[in-house]
Amino acid sequence: MDSATLLARITDHASRPNPYPLYEELRQAGPVVQQADGSYLIGTYHHIAALLHDPRMSADPRTRSEVPHKPPFLRLDDPEHHRLRTLAMRPFGPPHSPHRVDSMRGEIDRITKTLTASFEAGRRIDVVDDFAYPLPVTVICRLLGVPREDEPLFSAWSTALVTAADVRAGEDTTEAGKAGDQARMEMGGYLVNLAEQRRGNPTDDMLSAFVNEPDPALRLTQEELAETAVLLLIAGHETTVNLITNGVLTLLRHPEQQDLLRRQPELMPRAVEELLRYEPPVHMRERIPHADIEVAGTTIPRGASVILVLASGSRDPNRFHEPDRFDPTRPDNQHFGFGSGIHLCYGAPLARLEAEAALGALLPHLDTANLVEDPPPYRQNAMLRGPRHLPVQL
Fold this sequence. Notes:
Strands 1-2-8-5-3 form a 5-stranded mixed beta sheet. It has a 3-stranded antiparallel beta sheet with strand order 4-10-9. Strands 6-7 form a two-stranded antiparallel ribbon. Strand 1 (33-34) and strand 2 form a beta hairpin. It has 16 helices and 10 strands. It starts with 5 loop residues before the first helix and ends with a strand. It has 394 residues and is of the alpha+beta class. The longest helix is centred in the middle third of the chain and has 23 residues, at 174-196.
C-alpha cells in the first residue's frame, strides 16, 4: 500500500486491535515518511530518541498555529515547561509530603483488595469498569483532594479532553477542539474552586499544597493552577487505565508468562516495564520543528507536524531482540512507554506502583479466567490506545 496513507490507516478505528503490522510497514518505509496530509511519521527507535532530545523540536502547538489558551506544561517548551513542571511536582515530595507517592503503596494495596473482594469464581467482570478505571481514579482523587462522589463530573470532562488531544489524519478537529476547550474551562474552574476552599485551611492533599505555598516565587497563578490540576487529574488516571487493562489482556493471552509471574512474583516490576514496551498506553506524540531540520536525509520544514510513533520505536528490531515477543525477563528495556527527554512522564513512579499492585492482585484470579471477547472493543483514541471494555469470565 501507499506509505503516504499510513497515518490514516493507523488512526482508522479498525486498526485499533492490532496496529503493530502498520508500525512494521512504517519502519520499513523509511525513518521519515511524509503523509498525504503533510505530516511526517517517524517510527524507528534511534530517530525517535534523537528527536525527543532535540531542542529544535517543540511540544507547543502555538509553534504552528494560534491556540486560544496557554497549553498545560506537558505541551510547553523550556524554560517555561521546566518552571511549571518543577512547581507541579513539589507537592509530590519534600517539603510538603516526603515520599508522597511511596506512602500511597499501602493505600493502593487496600484499594486493590477492596476491588477484587467480589471477584468470585463463575462471575463475569469487566476489567475496565470493575477494576482498571476505579483504581487510578480513586488514587488520584485522594492525592489531589477531589471528593470521590464528584468522579462522574470529571469523567465526562476527561473524555472530551482526551478526544480533543487525539492524533487524526487530515480530519476537521474543530468540533472536538471546542468541546475539549469547554471541558478544560469547566474542569479547571471546578478544581480552582475546590483549591480555594482550602486556602488557609489546608488538608493533606496536593490542591491544598498548591494554594498554601508560603513562598510567593513558588506559587502558581490561578490560570496555572487550573491547567496543572486538570493535567494531573487526567494524566493521573487515563494512561494508567490503559496500562492495567493492556496488562491483563496480555497476561490472559500469555498463560505461560502468567505462570512465571506466579512462581516468581519478584519479576513483576520487570513485567510492568515489558508491558510499557510491548503494549504501551501511549502510542504517539506530536512535535513541531522550530526550524527546518534534516532527519535521515529528509528535510522537515519548520512548523510541520511530526508524529513520533513511540509504540513503533519500542518494537524496533534494530533496538530490541525479538521485539514482538512478550518477555517479562527482558534485560536493557529502555522503552518509550513514558516518553523520553524533558517531557518524560512525571507520573511514572505512581503509574508503575499502581500497575504492579493491580496486576499482582489480579494474578490469582487469572489462572482460570477466560477472555469473553478477543480482541475486545477498543476506545476510539489512537494515541492513548486501550480497550473500552475487557469482559472476562472468572
